[in-house]
Write a structure and sequence with these properties.
CATH architecture: 3-Layer(aba) Sandwich
CATH superfamily: Vaccinia Virus protein VP39
Order of helices and strands: HHHEEHHEHEHEHEHEHEEE
Number of strands: 10
CATH topology: Rossmann fold
Structural class: alpha/beta
CATH class: Alpha Beta
Number of helices: 10
Mean pLDDT: 92
Shape: globular
């Protein structure tokens, strides 16, 4: 209950402080708002993903889910029995947020995309269909949800995704060693201060001037907010944008270092549980 109240208060604080496009003096961010945030067209690919997510939300298929982000003591994970419907409703990206990811990828045209936290693959498909010639690497800790994600990729005939199953801390370092650049990264998993900072700093070693990094749930907890604020201060980050659910990082040379809190009108209500 305390967490829910905190989220509600944070959301109203965001609404009070967020700017519309009329208060933005950066041509780069103004263009981002008008051409990406305000674009309400839903592509045929996104319509298919919407339909699949709706179908998954109704599924009663039972899975044993391994959660590496909630383990305590000597046990680094917890096990839960959940239906696919529960996972789809609570732990996959909603259509409005997924379509924003899709438009961001379509706008910046990355060749190499990295995702931390596949779940059932809904967000992965939004990323992959926006850049069919790109290579998407997605990491998921739970083997059972990974299998469902693979089924979903096959069902929509999406072939530019490589699924890696394992803990982020085990899989990401070796993947980064094999990767020249990360053009677009979406981080949605292990929502805690230290892991978030560690994974972002690892990814930032591989970004270029044109890269984009999106962090999910930046206001999820005090720890996530602290991580977000410290990440924004990294000199390599030129422009940071807070749209409440997502934090966006840009690294373009020539941009003046600035932080923006932008009112994203298509945003769904804040998530109160994972």
């Amino acid at each position: 209950m305390v967490h829910k109240i905190r989220q509600i208060l944070k959301y109203f604080q965001y609404l009070f402080t967020a700017k519309t496009k009329y208060g933005i003096h950066s041509p780069f961010v103004y263009s981002l708002v008008t051409e990406v945030f305000e674009d309400d067209k839903v592509s045929a690919e996104c319509q298919k993903i919407r339909a699949l997510r709706k179908q998954l939300c109704q599924s009663r298929r039972l899975l044993e889910v391994t959660d590496f982000g909630s383990g305590k003591g000597s046990r680094p994970y917890t096990l839960h029995l959940k239906t696919v419907g529960q996972i789809a409703a609570r732990s996959t990206v909603d259509p409005a947020s997924g379509e924003l990811l899709h438009r961001l990828v379509a706008r910046f045209k990355p060749a190499n995309i990295l995702e931390l936290g596949t779940s059932l693959g809904i967000s992965t498909m939004y990323l992959a269909t926006a850049a069919p010639r790109a290579k998407i690497f997605t990491i998921e800790g739970c083997s059972t949800t990974s299998e469902v994600a693979r089924e979903n990729f096959a069902g929509l005939n999406i072939q530019n995704i490589e699924m890696l199953t394992g803990r982020f801390e085990d899989v990401l370092p070796s993947l980064m060693q094999q990767t020249e650049t990360v053009d677009f990264a979406y981080i949605d998993g292990h929502h805690e201060y230290e892991p978030t900072k560690k994974y972002v700093e690892m990814i930032l070693r591989k970004v270029s001037s044109n890269s984009v990094v999106v962090i999910d749930d930046i206001h999820w907890s005090a720890g996530m907010e602290r991580a977000w604020k410290e990440i924004c201060e990294i000199p390599q980050v030129k422009v940071s944008v807070d749209v409440f659910r997502f934090g966006l990082l840009f690294f373009r040379e020539g941009l003046t270092k600035q932080h923006f809190v932008i009112k994203y009108r298509n945003q769904s209500e804040p998530k109160f549980q994972k």
